Structure formats: structure tokens, C-alpha cells
């Protein structure tokens, strides 16, 4: 009988082996599906980038100019609009179009995405449609959009009517210049570690449900004359059935996982299902690699049976663990903090250091479990505590195995709950203008005409507000210090800027400190400074909050002759007006509109993406950890059926044994989760210091840091509750069966 036939015969006659095989296959399926999904994320962002790169401002790809292009951002109802203003300088039919764009818009024509088209018809024209100053002649297909609901407008112009910041270009940026999102690629790498390790722990726990029985069976075969190769073949066949079936099931489940992920927003929108497609070669390699790894682990686990079959049958005393294992933690922690403190460390090195820090738990955890067992054996007198302590002493590696996934989940949760509040505390800034002010940037030559156009549009729509020019110049002192100053009438400054100021009776200069003796130059300070007119008064201004970034203002009447701003903002307060109508008036010229609200919305979008990914990862890790802990506890009962059967036959109550098994799970989990929580917090602090290096910000620690430890311990204890049904099953079966 060949090994495969023998493996199937064992599966037919042994229900415990069938259960172990089914759970192992499910564990391999989960691991395979998660790996396929996570590895597909960089490909998904690459597909997104290839579809939408034509929307970005980028260098010309040829020597001949074929069109003028301006790219700007706008918002409607808090949702971003990507706007492209185009003008052809050659025959438009000769310009290669990106996939999904039906035609090159002629002057006065507009192409929009389907979602923007629907929104334009759902809102009054002066709130949205009038921003594009043209007739909609077509829609963009999904092949031209970053994500399905993206709002995009392509507006056609003559070259003379283009926005001031238009670029000369030889054509649209080709798709092969697109690059995957590096940040999501890093998160995918972290996700592989965070979710793959608990999945493999689940596989290992499932395969050990019948570990003791399998060892006895294989040892008997070795003693009966089976060669090492035959024994290895039998195990490879038994494990291969589960591993191959699990890998194929994981491959079949991956499309379902991808379909679920299409509903998870990232960078402003969701995904197309086709984004998660991967090259066939990569998919095949990953599907083949998972069973190979499982088979390799199973074969390496046969060393004791192959070398010493008598010892496998009769049992053995494990070697005591040495305290040198504790060195793994400070060594890996040192490598990690060297990585995060180095200014030139690569992301790969930081991820490797983080992986080593996580992996150190495999080395340190069993010793901690051994130390907990020694404490209970030496100082505890209740039967359940003594039984649990003896188990922890006799097999610390096996006892820790049930807690390994929980420890990783606690580490990840603590690290995330250190990073997220810290990142949230850095949100803000962008405080030149008040929250209610919208602004666009123009040139001094165009500013006057732009103000007139905006004021006329506002008056036409009945909005009681007006546009104001805000220039920028540089004030320089004799000692070389420079202060950026905004050129704006003091009477309007408080309504527009995040400052408080007491205006003088005549044109003056105002700053946070005395500006007497300063000279004035253009906005970049590149021209020679010109002294302020004689007798120009100075005053002080007070920022309204810590986000304000206004250092000084100067009345236009105090500006020396010959000094001109390099750029001009045109600002409109929306107090008492409809912000969407004001935005329409500003956007009609194709300029990017700035408002602090949208600046903060962008930050919150990024934070929401991180928060969402973190929650998904931690919840998945916790579920996998709980399953592996439950299976490991059940496997522990199955491995010791003889011992538990003898104890029950001797009169030991099931409740005492159940309590001992719960203590086996809870005691090492308590020590390990506390340690994992502290190390996760330290890792979070290290990563935050690396990301925010050079900034005057500090990490934020909240009481929520205790949550992963408490939940981790709860998951371990809850998972250990499966021991009671397992013990009752042992009690119901005759002891002679073993």
C-alpha cells in the first residue's frame, strides 16, 4: 500500500484525523486567501494609477507641444473634484487620448465622469454646473477614473483662455509611467506579517489535534520496519491532502475577498473588482508555496520519530529552557530602534526590524510560560493550579502555542492605539485664512480682472460678499532675518485672516513683534529690499490660535513704490453667503480653490483610511488568534487523553480539569499579553518618532492602550472554554480506546 492510499485509509477510519485534516485545510485556505489578497494590493494601486495618471500634472514626454493643460482641485459637498482645463495647439484629432476619454473637448465643451454628471443635474446650476462654463458633450468611462465614483471634469478652452498656470505638454501622461501607492504597499507587507502569522498558527494548532496519536502510529510503523522515507511519505501524504485542498480553497475564496474589498474606501474612493487581478505566475507561485511550507513544517516535525521511535512511543522529558532566550527581546528591540532612529534607514530595513521584534516573541514566550509554571508549582496548592503549573513546566512550548496568535494581536493592537491618537494629534495647520474663507491663487496682472469677474458673478447670484486681493511680500531686517507679510487692507484682515489686529488711522505695517526698520522686497525675497515710506506706523497682531500662520500684514498704501507681489491670493469670505455658490464663482476660471475645511478633510480622509485598515487588521488577527487558541486547547486535551482518562477514572472531577486547562491558557496569556502590550506601545512610539522626525510634536498615550491586553486575555480565556466539551467527550469514551 503506497503512502497516499494509507493516508486516505486513516482518514476513513479515524474521525479525529478527519477533524484535524478539515481544520488544517481551512487554516491553509485562510492563509492562502489572505496572502493572495494582500499581495494583490500593490497591483490594485498600480491599476488605479494607470487609469488616472492622465489626470495628473507631469513633465512633457516629447519635444513638440500639442496642448496646454492645467490641473486643479475643487470640492462639492465635501467631495473632491479633479478638474483638467485643456486647449489643443494642433489638430485635436491627432492627440492620443487616454483610455476611457471619448474625445478631446473643443472650446466650450466639457467631459465629466458619470457621478459628476448625476450631481450636476441634482444641484442648481449656480452651485455646481456653472463652474465649468461649457456644454457637457460626453462622459468618461471607468477606464479613465481612479475609482468608480470619482468626480472628474475635463473642460475645453482656446489657448488664450487657459488658466495662468497652464503647462505646455506634448500629450497626456502614458499609463506606463504610473507607480503603485508605496504607502499601501508597506501596509500590505505589514498585513502579511500581521495576518499570515496567526493563520499559520491556526494551521499548526489544527495539525496538532492528533499529534500524539500520529507520533505513536508512525513510531509503531518505524519499529515494524518502515524506512524513514516511507514514514516521511506517509506524513507528507496525510498533510498534503489538507494543504493542497486548503490552498485550492483559498484560491477559490480570494475572488470573494476581493469583492468585499471593493467596498473598502482608500484615498477617497472604492475599487474596481478588476483592480485585484494579479499575474498568473505570481498567483500560481503563492498557491504552490503555501502547501510546500506546510509540508516542510510537517516533515521537519518528524525528526524525533525517525531518529528515536522508541522514545516517541514511551514519551520523553523535554529539555529545560535556558534564560538566554530573554536576550532575544533586547537585541531585536535595539535593532528596531536603530532602524527608526536612523535618518537614512530604508522602509525595508524598518519592516525587517519590526518583523524581528515580533518574531522574538516565539523565542521569549516559551521561557515566560516556563517561569509562570515554575511559580505555580512552587507556590500554589490548589489541584487545578498545580495541574496547570505542571503542564506549563513539562511542555512550555506547547502551552505557549495557544497564546502565540493572541500575543501578536495584542502587539498589533497596542502599536496601532499608540500611533493613531498620535497621528490624529498632528492634524490641523493650514491656518492663513479663517475657516469660512475660500481663496484662489493668481498673478498680479490677472488679479484685477479675476476680482471683477468673481464680484460680478456673486452679485448676479445674490451673494452679499466680495473678493479681496491678498498679496505676499518679504520684510527683511538689517541682521538678515526675514518675515513673510501679506498685503491686505487692515480693515479686511480680521474678516479674512486668523488674527486679531487694531488698525491704525493710516496705512501701516503689523507684526507679532516690532517691524520698525525692516525693508520690503518681492514675495520670495529675491530682489533688493526697499525701505518703508518715512513715517509708516507699525502695530502688532495677535494670532487667534496655534494653527494661525500669519507673521505680518502690510496695508497696500504702505507698500513702497516699485515693490510688487510675485503671486496674489483672491480671497472671499462665505459668512452670510452660500459657500457652494461662492465656490462656483471662484472655480469658473479653472483655478484650484483653497479652504481650510477641505485641507482638514484631506487629513481626516487619510486618518480614516489608516483607522479603517487598522481596525480590519486587528479584528482579523484577533479572530484568527481566538480560533487557533481554541483549537490548540482542544488539541491539548486530545494529546493527553490517557492522562485525563486516568485522572477521571481515579475520581478527579471534570470541573477541576477544566479549571486547570483554563489556567493553562490564561496564565501564560496574561504574562505574554502584558509584555506584548508594552512592546507594541514602544514600537508605536518608535515608528511615530521616525515619521514625525524634526517636527515639534509628541506622541499621545491614552487609556485605550489597555484595551488590547484586556481583550487579548479575554479571547484566550474564552477560547479555552472549549476544554469542557472536549473533556466530557474523553469521559464518555472508554479508557481502553487509548
UniProtKB/TrEMBL annotation:
UniProt keyword terms in alphabetical order: Cell membrane, Membrane, Transmembrane, Transmembrane helix
Membrane topology recorded in Swiss-Prot or TrEMBL: Multi-pass membrane protein
GO molecular function terms attached to this record: transmembrane transporter activity
Annotated protein name in UniProt: FtsX-like permease family protein
Cellular localization per UniProt: Cell membrane
Protein family per UniProt: Belongs to the ABC-4 integral membrane protein family.
Occurrences of domain ABC3 transporter permease C-terminal (ranges): 192-302, 616-730
Species per Swiss-Prot/TrEMBL record: Amycolatopsis acidicola
Amino acid at each position: 500500500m503506497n503512502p497516499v492510499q494509507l493516508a486516505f485509509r486513516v482518514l476513513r477510519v479515524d474521525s479525529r484525523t478527519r477533524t484535524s485534516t478539515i481544520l488544517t485545510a481551512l487554516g491553509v485556505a485562510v492563509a492562502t486567501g489572505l496572502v493572495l489578497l494582500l499581495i494583490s494590493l500593490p497591483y490594485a494601486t498600480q491599476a488605479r494609477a494607470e487609469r488616472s495618471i492622465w489626470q495628473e500634472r507631469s513633465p512633457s514626454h516629447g519635444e513638440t507641444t500639442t496642448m496646454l493643460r492645467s490641473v486643479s482641485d475643487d470640492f462639492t459637498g465635501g467631495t473632491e473634484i479633479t478638474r483638467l482645463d485643456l486647449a489643443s495647439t494642433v489638430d485635436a484629432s491627432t492627440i492620443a487620448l487616454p483610455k476611457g476619454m471619448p474625445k478631446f473637448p473643443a472650446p466650450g465643451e466639457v467631459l465629466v465622469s458619470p457621478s459628476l454628471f448625476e450631481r450636476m443635474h441634482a444641484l442648481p446650476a449656480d452651485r455646481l454646473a456653472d463652474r465649468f462654463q461649457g456644454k457637457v458633450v460626453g462622459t468618461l468611462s471607468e477606464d479613465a477614473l481612479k475609482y468608480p465614483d470619482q468626480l472628474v471634469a475635463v473642460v475645453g478652452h482656446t489657448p488664450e483662455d487657459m488658466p495662468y498656470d497652464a503647462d505646455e505638454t506634448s500629450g497626456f501622461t502614458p499609463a506606463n509611467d504610473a507607480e503603485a501607492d508605496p504607502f499601501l504597499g508597506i501596509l500590505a507587507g505589514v498585513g502579511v506579517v500581521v495576518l499570515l502569522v496567526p493563520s499559520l498558527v491556526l494551521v499548526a494548532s489544527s495539525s496538532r489535534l492528533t499529534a500524539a496519536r500520529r507520533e505513536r502510529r508512525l513510531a509503531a510503523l518505524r519499529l515494524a520496519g518502515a524506512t524513514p522515507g516511507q514514514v516521511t511519505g506517509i506524513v507528507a501524504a496525510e498533510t498534503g491532502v489538507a494543504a493542497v485542498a486548503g490552498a485550492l480553497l483559498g484560491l477559490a475564496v480570494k475572488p470573494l475577498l476581493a469583492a468585499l474589498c471593493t467596498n473598502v474606501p482608500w484615498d477617497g474612493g472604492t475599487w474596481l473588482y478588476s483592480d485585484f487581478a494579479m499575474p498568473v505566475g505570481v498567483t500560481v507561485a503563492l498557491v504552490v508555496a503555501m502547501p510546500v511550507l506546510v509540508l516542510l513544517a510537517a516533515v521537519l516535525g518528524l525528526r524525533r520519530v525517525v531518529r528515536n521511535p522508541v522514545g516517541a512511543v514511551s514519551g520523553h522529558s523535554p529539555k529545560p529552557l535556558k534564560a538566554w532566550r530573554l536576550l532575544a527581546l533586547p537585541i531585536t528591540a535595539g535593532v528596531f530602534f536603530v532602524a527608526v532612529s536612523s535618518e537614512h534607514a530604508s522602509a525595508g530595513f524598518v519592516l525587517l526590524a519590526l518583523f524581528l521584534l515580533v518574531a522574538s516573541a516565539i523565542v521569549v514566550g516559551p521561557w515566560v510560560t516556563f517561569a509562570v509554571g515554575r511559580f505555580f508549582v512552587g507556590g500554589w496548592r490548589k489541584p487545578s493550579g498545580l495541574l496547570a503549573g505542571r503542564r506549563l513546566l513539562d511542555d512550555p512550548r506547547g502551552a505557549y502555542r495557544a497564546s502565540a496568535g493572541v500575543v501578536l494581536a495584542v502587539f498589533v493592537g497596542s502599536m496601532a492605539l499608540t500611533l493613531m491618537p498620535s497621528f490624529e494629534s498632528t492634524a490641523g495647520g493650514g491656518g492663513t485664512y479663517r475657516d469660512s474663507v475660500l481663496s484662489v491663487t493668481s498673478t498680479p496682472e490677472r488679479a484685477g480682472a479675476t476680482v471683477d469677474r468673481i464680484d460680478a458673478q456673486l452679485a448676479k447670484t445674490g451673494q452679499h460678499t466680495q473678493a479681496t486681493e491678498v498679496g505676499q511680500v518679504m520684510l527683511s531686517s538689517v541682521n538678515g532675518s526675514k518675515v513673510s507679510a501679506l498685503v491686505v487692507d487692515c480693515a479686511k484682515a480680521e474678516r479674512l485672516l486668523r488674527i486679531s489686529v487694531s488698525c491704525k488711522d493710516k496705512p501701516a505695517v503689523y507684526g507679532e513683534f516690532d517691524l520698525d526698520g525692516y525693508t520690503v522686497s518681492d514675495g520670495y525675497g529675491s530682489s533688493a529690499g526697499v525701505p518703508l515710506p518715512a513715517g509708516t506706523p507699525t502695530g502688532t497682531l495677535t494670532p487667534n490660535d496655534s494653527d494661525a500662520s500669519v507673521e505680518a500684514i502690510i496695508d497696500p498704501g504702505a507698500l513702497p513704490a516699485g515693490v510688487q507681489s510675485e503671486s496674489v491670493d483672491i480671497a472671499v469670505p462665505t459668512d452670510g453667503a452660500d459657500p457652494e455658490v461662492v465656490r462656483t464663482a471662484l472655480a469658473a476660471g479653472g483655478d484650484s480653490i483653497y479652504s481650510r475645511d477641505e485641507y482638514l478633510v484631506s487629513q481626516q480622509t487619510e486618518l480614516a483610511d489608516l483607522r479603517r485598515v487598522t481596525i480590519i487588521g486587528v479584528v482579523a488577527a484577533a479572530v484568527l488568534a481566538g480560533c487557533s487558541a481554541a483549537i490548540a486547547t482542544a488539541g491539548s486535551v486530545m494529546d493527553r487523553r490517557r492522562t485525563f482518562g486516568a485522572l477521571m477514572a481515579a475520581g478527579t472531577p471534570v470541573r477541576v480539569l477544566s479549571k486547570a486547562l483554563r489556567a493553562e491558557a490564561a496564565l501564560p496569556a496574561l504574562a505574554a499579553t502584558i509584555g506584548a502590550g508594552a512592546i507594541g506601545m514602544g514600537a508605536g512610539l518608535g515608528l511615530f518618532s521616525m515619521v514625525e522626525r524634526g517636527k515639534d510634536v509628541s506622541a499621545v498615550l491614552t487609556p485605550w492602550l489597555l484595551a488590547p491586553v484586556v481583550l487579548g486575555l479575554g479571547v484566550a480565556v474564552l477560547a479555552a472554554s472549549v476544554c469542557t466539551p472536549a473533556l466530557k467527550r474523553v469521559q464518555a469514551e472508554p479508557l481502553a480506546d487509548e
